[in-house]
Design brief:
Elements (H helix, E strand, L loop, with lengths): L2 E8 L4 E8 L3 H9 L4 E6 L14 H24 L3 E10 L13 H21 L5 E7 L14 H8 L10 H12 L10 E4 L7
Helix pairs in contact: 1-2, 2-3
């Protein structure tokens, strides 16, 4: 099961709501949207990763990653709009990646495909939803210090060598990505829509 916690805050009641739902099924997405109030903004952040060399790509592996990284955000936004759960002049932010959009790497073809797809979808959504005053943007991080790094696909030595490719000599921090998302949700970006905000510590400069 691919669960997501949707954490919401009502400014009227100053209370948080947490909803657990399975984003790998359309029923799970429908269940999620039915339980949420009207929103000022939405962040599509759920995603999975995995390295697969091209000669080992299978339909199952492609479908599993596309289901969560690409199809779920598309269907979630569709359902939110159909149920009128998004206010006018609101903001949608998608967590994408530098992968595929700005840089490719060995074994990362499936993941890169999903992130290129979500960026293309974001731009189309930005154009279609602009008349409603709804803005759509994405954040595109490079490597970030999260628990995903502990999956065992690379050794600690390989990670240290990889960090040296970054001009700032480190990976990003989760809060640095969150600050960018907050900007895109806020009125500070009221005239910003359809952009892919690259957050990579300078990695793609070379």
């Amino acid at each position: 099961m691919n669960d997501t916690f949707l954490s919401l805050m009502s400014t009227a009641t100053s209370q948080h709501i947490q909803v657990v739902s399975d984003l790998s099924t359309e029923d799970g997405i429908i269940n999620l949207v039915e339980q949420i109030p009207e929103l000022d903004g939405c962040v599509s952040n759920a995603g999975i990763v995995g390295l697969t060399p091209i000669q080992f790509i299978t339909v199952k592996k492609m479908e599993e990653m596309q289901c969560i990284n690409l199809l779920a955000p598309v269907l979630l936004v569709k359902r939110i709009l159909k149920q009128k759960k998004l206010k006018a002049c609101s903001s949608i932010v998608f967590t994408s990646s530098v992968a595929g959009v700005y840089r490719v790497s060995m074994g990362n073809a499936i993941y890169s495909m999903t992130k290129c797809g979500i960026d293309a979808y974001m731009r189309s959504a930005a154009l279609e939803l602009a008349p409603k005053g709804i803005r759509c943007n994405s954040v595109n991080p490079a490597m970030v210090e999260t628990r995903i790094l502990n999956r065992g696909q690379l050794t600690s030595e390989q990670y240290e060598m990889d960090r040296l490719r970054y001009p700032l000599k480190r990976y990003g921090k989760p809060e640095e990505i969150a600050w960018a998302i907050i900007y895109l949700l806020s009125d500070a970006s009221a005239w910003v829509t359809g952009i892919s905000l690259k957050l990579d510590g300078g990695m793609t400069l070379s």
